[in-house]
Amino acid sequence: MTFGTRTLAPALLLCAIAAPATAQNNDGPSVQGDLAVTLNDGFDDDDALNFDWPMLSIGTGQYEDGPTGVTVIRFGRKVHGAVDARGGGPGTVNAPYLDLGYVQPELDAVVLAGGSWYGLEAVTAVNTAMKDDGYRGGHWNNVGLAVGSIIYDFGGRRLNEIYPDKRLAQAAYRAARPGTFPIGPYGAGRSAMTGGLFGCNARSGQGAAFRQIGEVKIAVFTVVNALGVVTDREGKVVACHAGQSWPRDLRAHDLLNASPASLSPDWDGQQAAEPDRKNTTISLVVTNRSMSSAELKRLAVQVHTSMARGIQPFATELDGDVLYAVSTDEVEAGPGDGLVTAEIGAVASELMWDAILSSVPQQPVAPQPRRSADGSDLQEFAGTYTFGPLASLEVTAEKGRLYGRATGERDVFAIRKDGPTELRPAGSNVFVVPGRYPFSIRFEGDEVVVNPGRWQQVGTRK
Amino acid sequence: MTFGTRTLAPALLLCAIAAPATAQNNDGPSVQGDLAVTLNDGFDDDDALNFDWPMLSIGTGQYEDGPTGVTVIRFGRKVHGAVDARGGGPGTVNAPYLDLGYVQPELDAVVLAGGSWYGLEAVTAVNTAMKDDGYRGGHWNNVGLAVGSIIYDFGGRRLNEIYPDKRLAQAAYRAARPGTFPIGPYGAGRSAMTGGLFGCNARSGQGAAFRQIGEVKIAVFTVVNALGVVTDREGKVVACHAGQSWPRDLRAHDLLNASPASLSPDWDGQQAAEPDRKNTTISLVVTNRSMSSAELKRLAVQVHTSMARGIQPFATELDGDVLYAVSTDEVEAGPGDGLVTAEIGAVASELMWDAILSSVPQQPVAPQPRRSADGSDLQEFAGTYTFGPLASLEVTAEKGRLYGRATGERDVFAIRKDGPTELRPAGSNVFVVPGRYPFSIRFEGDEVVVNPGRWQQVGTRK
Amino acid sequence: MTFGTRTLAPALLLCAIAAPATAQNNDGPSVQGDLAVTLNDGFDDDDALNFDWPMLSIGTGQYEDGPTGVTVIRFGRKVHGAVDARGGGPGTVNAPYLDLGYVQPELDAVVLAGGSWYGLEAVTAVNTAMKDDGYRGGHWNNVGLAVGSIIYDFGGRRLNEIYPDKRLAQAAYRAARPGTFPIGPYGAGRSAMTGGLFGCNARSGQGAAFRQIGEVKIAVFTVVNALGVVTDREGKVVACHAGQSWPRDLRAHDLLNASPASLSPDWDGQQAAEPDRKNTTISLVVTNRSMSSAELKRLAVQVHTSMARGIQPFATELDGDVLYAVSTDEVEAGPGDGLVTAEIGAVASELMWDAILSSVPQQPVAPQPRRSADGSDLQEFAGTYTFGPLASLEVTAEKGRLYGRATGERDVFAIRKDGPTELRPAGSNVFVVPGRYPFSIRFEGDEVVVNPGRWQQVGTRK
Amino acid sequence: MTFGTRTLAPALLLCAIAAPATAQNNDGPSVQGDLAVTLNDGFDDDDALNFDWPMLSIGTGQYEDGPTGVTVIRFGRKVHGAVDARGGGPGTVNAPYLDLGYVQPELDAVVLAGGSWYGLEAVTAVNTAMKDDGYRGGHWNNVGLAVGSIIYDFGGRRLNEIYPDKRLAQAAYRAARPGTFPIGPYGAGRSAMTGGLFGCNARSGQGAAFRQIGEVKIAVFTVVNALGVVTDREGKVVACHAGQSWPRDLRAHDLLNASPASLSPDWDGQQAAEPDRKNTTISLVVTNRSMSSAELKRLAVQVHTSMARGIQPFATELDGDVLYAVSTDEVEAGPGDGLVTAEIGAVASELMWDAILSSVPQQPVAPQPRRSADGSDLQEFAGTYTFGPLASLEVTAEKGRLYGRATGERDVFAIRKDGPTELRPAGSNVFVVPGRYPFSIRFEGDEVVVNPGRWQQVGTRK
């Protein structure tokens, strides 16, 4: 069973600002420096939230070779901010400062990124870009302040460990523009996943929502990369690669009430799968309504807590969830708008649920294997393909069948290190490995493309 | 529309340990000292969670004259604890100590009480009871430690301001016994309400749930007194006195998505009701599994966050939500039980949802008014009735109709201060005021009983 | 070597509001209820800070039978407050609320007490006194808020475990008056000590200081009960019962630089004394200058940190140090007064050092033993004297010498449980045990007075 | 009056790893990329702490053109850490994570840097260097974790805003070696100052101290950049450019007790100087003794608090003080070593005071002006010199006198923008401006060197 409602992203429009990507991702500094940068593109209108708020500019950057990315939200002036860190393994820059609640606004930008703790370089890089560009300086009342957080998008998510770095983040910062926030697997959410606790391993991304009530604007942004599953307002699981013997009409409370049994592939309590040990959902809520630091903190707490409805479970020890709350201070609070913080929080929380739901992309589907192979000469696919220093794949053909074996540090998804796995034909140059998770592989000359499409991983034959 | 699924509590079996209550509640210290104490009773099996865990003893005490109460959970030895304070107005004793994460267990008891910040006397009283009884002493390794929190159960909830005090708390502590936790309007949850944000004003109480997985026991307890509404796993509102023009099939996301319109009685965005400014949900999760202080803190965060599913919205600035997490350290953690903290947290979070749902009592229903009054002489009901220093009621009969007017500091619920309200006959000595909230009044000699039943308020004719 | 500069307190003027104290302190609830209460007295002008600030009222109460006590600081209206908890074992009521930084002032009183965690009953009792007296009520904008902390004054400090309770605290609250704060061993500081880390075991107390700069008033209060020693501005130790072989001109940096050697009685690193495991210094700084919650928090942090100069070491794991900062909001901040928070903090920090120094009372000195006993018949002193349930003393006379042996749970200071200790004559009915710490005992009929004077302990012959 | 005890640093041994610095510091990204890097040098034995602890490696990097720098402390394996943020404006990376108290050690390095919040790039850069070098990777149990903090070393400290960036930090990280920590104006302390609150404006730097007790090693490191003054153990001010009418024998308590009068240049309460609004002292304490997360937090609190003795005032709203505490877990805790955390904390606190004192370099002294100028042709010095985008200096000669006027955004120290300042001859090409702070200027061809020596600023004639 595979869920998913949004249309596939169109082909990427690469906007290279550096040398084109090499196929060889050896993960070292030279490679990071050579990676192609994709900025603010790769999505169409269905994949973006469009909204009218000149004070907010959004820049999205990706290394498609990861894939991984960064999302920068710039404010048109210094603003007040608050932070709420709830997960067991957060990554943050300058969180204690935000907690202090100063009278004077200081915050310039919130940066969200992939790359686990390495991706925090993206946050500090946005700050130094403001300095290098002369937008901010060193006088005590003009020091730039970017804060931000990261998600863990390594592990089982991809075959390399490319991370968003200074170069990518500064490019995304400089490309920021108002009005459009791409939703789905873009920016910081490029390689996000959900549901690892139950083995769901669904693809995820970043989401957003916006609403205006009178003069009060509220926008929310989130990068959903959770141990838990995404759930809708009727309690249904939105995306999950379910086990074969699982209930067909999967509801969140089935999964949750049945745990620990539901942690095992066959719902029988045996051989509980070890969940991926690191996950993170990072979020931002912005309002133009004036709010004191204390009110912003209350808003952050309320909205962050509310996310437990759309992501179940949430804020576990294996998540590093952080939420930022910001007021751009454009509209004075007053009796006229009839809203207390709790009410703004209630509205923002519903928006955040919308944003969570918007983040889920259509899930990948592998083609069906064919009964009989076509006449292609399988030997042309044989060889050893490398995906960088961590993963490589040995392909052999024998008696009209094609086999793969992972020969690097790690498995190539369904192709394990511990023995040959048959690659069953699904097309002239396309093969699959059936199983709980879609897995396909396409041979193109000296390249092999694993899981072709939005999250493909490309290897090169030595 | 009124929701509610549990049966009405049986008549109370008063277990007075002091002089019987006087009808006059003048809220001063002498009256507090004269109030009748109800201990561990007033409920039948349907109104209690029964579970097997000798290490936990529960004592419940109430001043029915409030009504208000206290719930004491004692542990059979010193245990580790953690705390997570999320609401905007928490009341706590010794929270910073719990946050320090000491190696040595120190905690003896968790005390939950009504009475807003005054009810914190119940927490410190349990600690001094341990000292006075010689159970704990002054040596540095034997100092008693009770922690705890309170709910705000004044305001629109009742006509007096009686609070749980030292006498009540020490009695409840000394009456604690293992195996039974009353659910519904008992103990600290005696005058709890929910849904004030939307004007729901549903009666609430305390809830509990228990589960054992192998050797691992998990119990959760909660006193639900929330600005938000209680919601079930399909997103339906469990209890609400809905406005007349509201949707008949009320779902939480209708209320939430439609705010701020749903904050007004007629769902039209006009005249938004001001929510009661203080509310609090206070909770406890206990496991017998060994957990370090850091793990307990993670458990507290995860379970507390999860409560946003069963109470919507949750953790607002107008709540003072606090959750305690405790390990009794009876079962070693090990690979054998296949559970990491996140999984225990997931199970405990589902239990907490069950506990929240269990807390909701059957809602009061007022009798129907009769078309024509019976022949009773209404003059016999006339007079001024007082409910203590805050509220009094003037009843007059004129031309075969009965009228009430509140003459004290505050309204007597549907009977306002600003003019006479007709009391429409519903029985020989029973009258009602139709409206969104059930309101009835029964005359018995020189006493008047407002909203007879579980939450009745008794006034006396001068 | 014994330091100390202030004159001995005059005889106490007991102001009993209850039945007179019995000689038998059996530490149970009945005894707590029978103890005599001493309010706002027992000190003369040299022992008090007098200052002009009508907004602050101070009430001091003591159970001389402990001795232990409570100090209540009431504010003339609701004020803003902040808290800084630094020690390893703090005792607090409502600290998380103060940390939230609300716009509306809520705080009514700060309560400091002895009695370890049991003494927190004094804090909650002041709150319920405000309610019981009708000064505060239950409406959401009028709920009373008392916060406060306790010191650990059990252990080696006295032979009983009497603690400040509801009765004492409410009496002290109701006796509060402006203008006078007793300094030395009064109120919460009644049985305070310092220097346990080095075996100094000096008597301590509560201190205070006040300064006005233009319109800005600053008052500081502290109860010094520290693991460390009190030090003056030249780095000298103010009070310490030094070991025999210690340097004569004792300076704090000698003690500190030489640790761990200085932890042993003979400065040789052998047999390090185990310090008393619990200590606490609790403090309050108040200004009439308007300050936001964030500014108050900064003030609290700065002043609390500065106390490490006058108490060395400070804020250890064996302390439970807490400081409250309050603004009465009587004087607007402005450029006119030329003060930023850091400067107010600097002034307040010097005041706090003054307050710490003021807290140290003259240390007790035991009389010299006589070469030869007078002709008194020692048999008249023989018998078993009890100090309550924890300590009793067997006195025997043999061959013209008097011996003591502790027969209860604990030693009677220099008189141990493990064998007879000779009581050497120092007067007709006065005896001493020479040693590092002054110890004398006086027989009066059926009573025995240990360490007669300010901190005496009275036992009764069975 | 100028204090200072340590010898002047020898000439720098530049170890350029990039193109040599240009004279033109226009502060943009290209310039940052062109700056010469100085690594682990520029100091002699008197300027370093040498100690034996292979588990600790130290790397120090500077941009002498700032001057500013970075100090990296690497640990030989993953270690436990805790953090204590006390100042009003801290800069931190990953502080909330450290506060969580995980069982598994995660920390790899602590990075201290100049450059205000921009310098946080140095912290994240060390983390990505570990990844780029293959020392750490992306598997969940092997993710690199560098934490760290920054000081504010812009403002009145120098004429440019160069900051430690990724290039400098990664070079310093890779140059780290055990055994030597340079003390004084090196690394992160390159442009540190102290005493701004009183106008002292003394040069400062980084300090360190080490002690071994049995098997237990303790090392402390600090970068002293404080609003307050550095004070020794007798309460004397160690370094201050005092006002002319100030007491000759300046003691800290004179300054502090006399504030706010002591905040004015003439100690008269008039024209209080506005202190520099941002300062920070950042510190690290390391022990090889095993400590739990809770114990490390206690250690951090105790040692950080103790620093208020050596820096007065400390932890103000205008500081951003942060301290890290680390255990390398090499020596088991046990009764054998006779040390509880409080005692280790006491020893470490004395070491920290030593480290603070060691950080103070010899203060710069300007040459005396001559009565009569020599015969040099002053016209040869005339021209406009630029120090980068922020500062430039116009030098004119008239009637045998030389004048300067600042023509950029800011003053060139004693040479103001608001009018010509006479430059009085002190040598053939050396001139001074007498005043509270030493100021001299030397002409060398087309370059002008302001305050020649350790903290010189070089301008170039257009």
UniProtKB/TrEMBL annotation, chains A, B, C, D:
One of its GO terms (molecular function) is aminopeptidase activity. Residues 1-23 form the signal peptide. This is Peptidase S58 DmpA. InterPro entries: ArgJ-like_dom_sf (IPR016117), Peptidase_S58_DmpA (IPR005321). The keyword Signal applies. Belongs to the peptidase S58 family. It comes from the Bacteria. It comes from Pelagerythrobacter marensis. Keywords: Signal.
